[in-house]
Design a protein that fits this description.
Order of helices and strands: HHEHHEHEEEHEHEHEEEEHHEHH
Radius of gyration: 21 Å
Structural class: alpha+beta
Distance between the termini: 40 Å
Strand content: 15-25%
Length: 324
């Protein structure tokens, strides 16, 4: 796949591809291995040719349920931005949180559609149910012509980024998984669940219902320092309900974050207009932090300014639980 020049081109390519594959399956059901391989190749090529929304700060600005009810092409376009100098194509709405969930829904729905037209696959969504992670992905099982089952992991924001593929085989020895990762993947395939630390969903609707029970704040930003005189080292800011993790080059800081206090402060801002919302919301965020030292506060104050223009503050408040 050559790099796309427009979102409409992505939409047309996906719809054509799925329609051709569906027709091919109906006409040549015995060639499902070849068709399955083509599906995986298509999405892995798409993964490498597009800027995929695989960071928390770039999920679609649309509710999970509304996203699930839209068409597959619409879902994919909301998960992708193209390589282009035209910033209008980037559709970066900056909803801060859960972009992995959008990818899980899309890939689950896509393989459900192919299963309906005859591709011998089963899939389910997994989600880690931990304080520090509610990350999700999809486990895909394909029945080969010889009757054996192939297991795959679909994950746009996790381990798959390391291997630069959206769909990865779990069982294949050609993938250089570490022993710990390979063991964890086998647990996901077996649907192992120790004290509810991992949840599994056979239907997207059940997954959405579970995710909607618990509001969580998760932002992950990556950018380079723009300050004069500084090396352009990569800066990452990850905000979770209990802490903020800030890194700059080899340095790292953990800063306590009181999410409940933040929500209280934001609720007090309900009467302000949309065009005034950014600074007060970011100030409320700053006031909800517990710094270990004065030096850390000064440092954070400096890099905190980088969030301005990087975060849609209204969406930040929404994900934190400010809006229903």
């Amino acid at each position: 796949i050559d790099p796309f020049s427009s979102l409409e081109e992505i939409d047309l390519t996906v719809e054509k591809t799925l329609n051709v594959l569906s027709g091919f399956l109906k006409k040549y059901p015995h060639r499902h291995q070849q068709i399955f391989d083509e599906v995986c190749n298509f999405f892995n090529n798409l993964f490498s040719s597009c800027h995929l929304r695989n960071f928390y700060n770039s999920a679609p600005n649309i509710t999970l349920s509304a996203y699930n009810e839209s068409g597959l092409s619409d879902q994919l376009v909301n998960n992708v931005y193209v390589r282009s100098d035209n910033e209008a194509l980037f559709r970066n709405e900056m909803m801060n949180g859960a972009s992995c969930h959008y990818w899980s829904i899309f890939m689950k729905n896509m393989f459900d559609r192919l299963e309906e037209v005859g591709l011998p696959v089963e899939s389910y969504i997994y989600m880690f149910n931990e304080k520090t992670s509610r990350h999700s992905g999809v486990i895909l099982k394909h029945k080969k012509p010889d009757g054996n089952i192939q297991n795959f992991i679909i994950d746009a924001g996790g381990i798959n980024k390391v291997f630069k593929k959206l769909i990865l085989p779990i069982d294949a020895q050609v993938i250089d998984y570490s022993p710990a990762v390979r063991s964890s993947l086998q647990e996901l395939v077996a649907k192992k669940n120790k004290t509810d630390d991992c949840l599994y969903f056979d239907h997207s609707e059940d997954f959405i219902a579970e995710v909607s029970k618990k509001q969580s704040l998760a932002i992950s930003l990556e950018f380079h320092s723009p300050f004069e005189g500084e090396h352009h080292e990569l800066i990452t800011v990850k905000i979770t309900p209990g802490k903020i993790h800030l890194t700059k080059g080899p340095l790292a800081w953990d800063i306590g974050f009181d999410q409940k206090l933040f929500i209280q402060k934001v609720k007090a801002l309900e009467d302000i207009s949309d065009n005034e919302v950014e600074d007060p919301v970011l100030e409320a965020l700053f006031e909800s932090l517990a710094f270990s030292s004065y030096e850390t506060r000064i440092l954070w104050d400096k890099y905190f300014q980088l969030l301005r223009g990087k975060i849609n503050a209204r969406r930040l408040a929404f994900v934190a639980g400010y809006e229903e």
